[in-house]
Design a protein that fits this description.
161 residues
Length: 161
C-alpha cells in the first residue's frame, strides 16, 4: 500500500514538474532541472535524483531491519543521506531541485491522513479530546525545546568571546 502511494506521489510530482517545464519553454532558456533539456535528459535527471533519495530510505530500512534496532528506517536513511551530503560538501543543483519539488508537493501526503480521520470517525468522537490534548502538549513541548536549543549560544560563539 505504501509503495503504491509513493509511486502515485512520484507520478504527480513528475507530471506537475513536466507541465511547469513545458510552460517555461518559451519564456526562458533552460537553466535548472525544471527547464526542458534535450533528448529527455530532464526526465532521466529527475528520476535519477528521486531514485537516489529513495535508495537512502531503502538503505535505512535495511540497516534497521538487519541490526534489529527499534528506530524508524526512513529516519535512519535520512541520517545516512545527511552524512553523505556532508562528505560531498552539499547537494547538487539537480538534487536540490528534486528535493524542492517534493517539498512543494508535500501537501499531497496529507490526503491519506484526512481519509483516515473520516474512516475512524467513531474513534475520534470517543477519544478526540485526549488526542487533541496529546497533540497540543507535544507540539508545545517541541516548540519550547526548539526555541531553547535555537536560542542557546553555540560552542563556537562562546569560544570567540
Amino acid at each position: 500500500m505504501v509503495t503504491v502511494a509513493a509511486l502515485c506521489f512520484a507520478g504527480v510530482v513528475y507530471s506537475s514538474m513536466h507541465k511547469a517545464a513545458i510552460a517555461t519553454t518559451a519564456s526562458s532558456p533552460p537553466t535548472n532541472l525544471t527547464s526542458p533539456r534535450p533528448n529527455g535528459l530532464w526526465e532521466r535527471v529527475m528520476i535519477g535524483q528521486l531514485l537516489l533519495i529513495m535508495s537512502f530510505q531503502l538503505a535505512g530500512e535495511a540497516i534497521v531491519a538487519l541490526v534489529g534496532l527499534n528506530f524508524p528506517g526512513p529516519l535512519c536513511g535520512l541520517l545516512l543521506m545527511l552524512a553523505w551530503l556532508a562528505l560531498r560538501g552539499g547537494p547538487s543543483e539537480e538534487l536540490s531541485s528534486a528535493a524542492g519539488t517534493l517539498v512543494d508537493h508535500l501537501g499531497l501526503l496529507f490526503v491519506p491522513a484526512g481519509a483516515a480521520i473520516i474512516g475512524f470517525g467513531t474513534l475520534l468522537l470517543s477519544d478526540g479530546m485526549a488526542i487533541a490534548g496529546a497533540l497540543s502538549l507535544s507540539t508545545g513541548f517541541a516548540i519550547a525545546v526548539a526555541g531553547l536549543l535555537g536560542g542557546a549560544p553555540s560552542a563556537q560563539s562562546l569560544h570567540k568571546r
